[in-house]
Every structure is written in C-alpha cells, then in structure tokens.
Specification:
The chain is α/β, with parallel strands linked by helices and 222 residues long. The protein is built from 7 helices and 11 strands. Helix 3 links the parallel strand 4 and strand 5. The protein is globular and about 55 Å long.
C-alpha cells in the first residue's frame, strides 16, 4: 500500500514509522520542515514541506496512486478539508481525519469520512482505518479465544436482517454504528450499506471471516 499522511506530529510520525516497518510506502506532508525531526534516520518515505490540502502538494506525495490518506494535523478544519479533497477530488475511498470536536466528527461520519476524536485517539486506531479491513481487530480476550472485529456492510448484504447475517456467517453482531451513531443490535435491525458492524467471533475464525460473509451473500448460508 501507498499511504499519504498529512501532519508529522506525534501521531503522524508514529503512524509513518509503523507503516514503513510493515513494508508499506509512505509520503508524509507538513508545513514545517522541522516537524520531520520526529522521524528517525531510517525513514525511507517521502518528506514533503507544504500545505496538506494543496492539490499540487498532494500530487507530489503520489495521491493519484495512493491507497489511503490520513489527515492528522492539529486543526479540525484542515483535516476535514484534506479528507474532502482526497475523497472528492482524487477519489480515495480509505480516508481518516483526526477531529477534536466530537460533534463535528459525527457530522463528517455522515459524509462517509472516518473520524477519530482525541478522547479515543491512538496510532492503532488510525491504522485500523487506513489498512484493509482484514486488519480491523478491535479487541482480543486474555485467553485469545474471542475477538471483536470491525466490518463494513457492503451493498450485497444491505437490506438483510442482522440476525440472518449472524446465522449465515456464524458470528455475533454486538453493535452497529450508522451515520456516526452506535446502537445495540436488535432482532429486527436491518443492515444498511455503510453500516459499521462490531462482530464477536472465535479468534481462529477471523482469517476466514470475509469469505464467510461473501458466501452468506451468494448462497444464503455459510
């Protein structure tokens, strides 16, 4: 994957380091050249001085062929502008923005932009939204027998009751986030495209979860 990070503060620099260590390519942008001092000498990605929502700067960072964008500057307005430019002008689907104001975060969730407020902010949470969904493991119990997993509802599963998805994919839907608001699963709740499911699943079955969900769509049973 190629990831564009805007903001080389504590979170941005840690995110860049972890992505490089995982053999991804990274371009990191900051308006202050001295911000790159947070990166150690082994950093192999691009370091670009500029304004993160400037299209020419983003083009220099390789946004035309990138897989994800993380806007992690210290300003809500800048991060949302960066996220919208990435999504609307360059068609990047996997975009996450750091938002300090939880009310704003809920608004932008409705626009399809993944946000994380500072109260729950960690580099790990950004990685879960930048990397492909197979990596989205929220929690594992101390015995490593049960995992809590994030998965989005794609169009083929939209319109099905969550109880049907549970039965066919052999998972337990714990909660659902829709338009920035979380709710507990009920027997009558129907999946909508873009819903974020929190699924409890045996840890040994995590790797096969996506194929189970796809099989559930195609054949009606896992």
């Amino acid at each position: 994957m190629h990831v564009v990070i805007v903001g080389c503060g504590r979170v941005g620099s840690a995110l860049a380091k972890e992505l490089i260590e995982a053999n991804h390519t990274v371009a990191i942008i900051d308006r202050r050249e001295e911000a790159f001092s947070r990166l150690d000498s082994s950093f192999t990605g691009q370091k670009i001085v500029g304004i993160g929502f400037d299209r020419d700067v983003l083009a220099t960072a390789g946004i035309q062929h990138c897989d994800a964008v993380a806007a992690v500057t210290s300003g809500d307005n800048s991060n949302i502008l960066i996220a919208r430019v990435a999504r609307e002008n360059f068609g990047i689907e996997r975009v996450v923005a750091r938002i300090y104001d939880p009310q704003r975060a809920a608004v932008y969730q409705r626009l399809g932009i993944a946000t994380v407020a500072t109260v729950s902010w960690t580099t790990e949470r950004v990685l879960r939204r930048v990397l492909p969904p197979e990596a989205a493991v929220e929690w594992v119990d101390p015995s490593a027998n049960v995992s809590l997993i994030e998965r989005h509802i794609e169009s083929p599963n939209a319109g099905r009751k969550y109880t049907e998805i549970e039965e066919s994919a052999k998972v337990r839907v714990v909660a659902v986030a829709r338009l920035g608001k979380a709710m507990l699963m009920t027997p009558t709740l129907v999946a909508q495209e873009g819903d974020l499911m929190y699924l409890a699943i045996a840890s040994t079955e995590v790797d096969s979860l996506n194929s189970k969900l796809n099989t559930a769509v195609v054949g009606g049973h896992a």
